[in-house]
From TrEMBL:
Record-given protein name: Cytochrome c oxidase assembly protein COX15 homolog isoform X1
Reaction(s) this enzyme catalyzes, per UniProt: Fe(II)-heme o + 2 A + H2O = Fe(II)-heme a + 2 AH2
SUPFAM superfamilies: Trypsin-like serine proteases (SSF50494)
Example of a GO cellular component annotation carried by this entry: mitochondrial inner membrane
Pathway(s) it belongs to: Porphyrin-containing compound metabolism; heme A biosynthesis; heme A from heme O: step 1/1
Originating gene: LOC112854545
Residues that span the membrane, as ranges: 75-95, 157-175, 187-205, 225-249, 270-293, 329-346, 358-382, 388-405
Cofactor(s) annotated in UniProt: heme b
């Protein structure tokens, strides 16, 4: 038995492919033995084989764990970028009042836009049957309809691109074994949230297409559904960006002092305030609350307007009274920029790495820029380009707040 086993064991242990791999001259090189393993290493890179699988009688080596993490991190960074594009494009769709131009929802059929005059006229006739045309756009021409239709079409097609950007690479990485057990659960949750986001978008649009015989108000989507649609998009964006930064940025080993603990808590609270302020913007957009009081710092002639609590019960005013909605958005914005300022001065009292300091300075600059954009948008009666820039600024501010949080995260033991 020994004569049969030990020679084979010695031959296996002597295989250079199972030793520590040294530097290679090319990204993909063939080893000198007869095992047929191709090594995925960069020049000068050292790694160990973390997993050897036998498939069809041949040995295959997965990517080293660090290399796989970088690939997944870059993919999620691209995904978060596509979500940011969807949020910005959705804001433009809302500002141009284009969201109700497509009255049907079909995952495949609506991907092909109308091409002939007859098709455009048929699409326009369908739009004419709904409240927005009857009450608001009854004198709209076909050329004007094409503009708002293409705005909504672009938003929907971009949403499909977001879905493909998440789902197809996720399936590929899963099959290749580049996702850890914890990452698999996170990726599944992200892909599920993408699908939920698409369904929620149509659920939101339906609220603006419903007939309301006893109402002569301007047809618009429900501000509750709009906030849910934006909120889920922001959650998807934050989760993707946070995971990407955690995989790509090396973690700082900061001394766990009381000052650092307070700074970390302040960063978390500030990011939460920025998120809440951005979410409150959905209610401002849904109720056109930016057109109620176009003055600053006062609202009209007073600091606190008299029509804050005109609805009953009182809680309805927070979500349905345009005056209260604008007032809340102002307070949240001022509170957020105050929190960012406090966070910045706290960060100056602690020795921090250069990259962390850069995140704090960038957050401060963006916060005051965003306040300036918001005030300008209000005073100029919400011009579309400026309002779109303000909406994009909220996403940029939230991104940098997440970056700073990631810089300050605790090193796992």
């Amino acid at each position: 038995m020994q004569r049969l086993l030990f020679p084979r064991l010695k031959a296996l242990m002597g295989n250079p492919c199972l030793r520590l791999l040294g530097p290679r001259a090319a990204p993909r090189t063939q080893c000198g033995c007869s095992c047929g393993i191709r090594h995925l290493l960069r020049p000068g890179q050292y790694s160990t084989i973390s997993e050897v699988a036998l498939q069809s009688g041949r040995g295959t080596v997965s990517l080293p764990s660090k290399a796989a993490e970088r690939v997944v991190g870059r993919w999620l960074l691209v995904c978060s970028g596509t979500v940011a594009g969807a949020v910005i494009l959705g804001g433009m769709t809302r500002l141009t009042e284009s969201g109700l131009s497509m009255v049907d929802w079909n995952l495949i059929k609506e991907m092909k836009p109308p091409t002939h005059q007859e098709e455009w006229e048929a699409e326009f006739q369908k739009y004419q049957q709904f409240p927005e045309f009857k009450i608001l756009n009854h004198d709209m021409t076909l050329a004007e309809f094409k503009f708002i239709w293409y705005m909504e079409y672009s938003h929907r097609m971009w949403g499909r691109l977001v879905g493909l950007t998440y789902i197809l690479p996720a399936a590929y990485f899963w099959r290749k074994g580049w996702l850890s057990r914890g990452m698999k659960g996170r990726v599944l949750a992200l892909c599920g949230l993408v699908c939920f986001q698409g369904l929620l978008g149509w659920y939101m649009v339906k609220s603006g297409l419903e007939e309301k015989p006893d109402s002569h108000d301007i047809p618009r989507v429900s501000q509750y559904r709009l906030a849910a649609h934006l909120g889920s998009a922001l959650v998807l964006y934050c989760a993707s960006l946070w995971t990407s930064l955690s995989l790509l940025l090396p973690q700082h080993k900061l001394p766990e002092t009381r000052q650092l603990l307070w700074l970390r808590r302040c960063a978390h609270g500030t990011a939460g305030l920025v998120f809440l302020t951005a979410l409150s913007g959905a209610f401002v957009a849904g109720l056109d609350a930016g057109l109620v009081y176009n003055s600053f710092p006062k609202m009209g002639e007073s600091w606190i307007p008299e029509d804050l609590f005109t609805l009953s019960p009182i809680l309805r005013n927070v979500f349905e009274n345009p005056t209260m909605v604008q007032f809340d958005h102002r307070i949240l914005g001022i509170t957020s920029v105050t929190a960012v300022t406090v966070l910045y001065f706290l960060s100056r009292r602690i020795p921090l790495p250069r990259r962390t300091k850069m995140a704090a300075v960038t957050l401060l600059a963006l916060a005051y820029t965003q306040v300036g954009l918001g005030i300008s948008t209000l005073l100029m009666y919400v011009p579309t380009p400026l309002a779109a820039t303000h909406q994009s600024g909220s996403l940029a501010l939230l991104s940098v707040a997440l970056w700073l949080m990631n810089e300050l995260r605790r090193v796992p033991k």
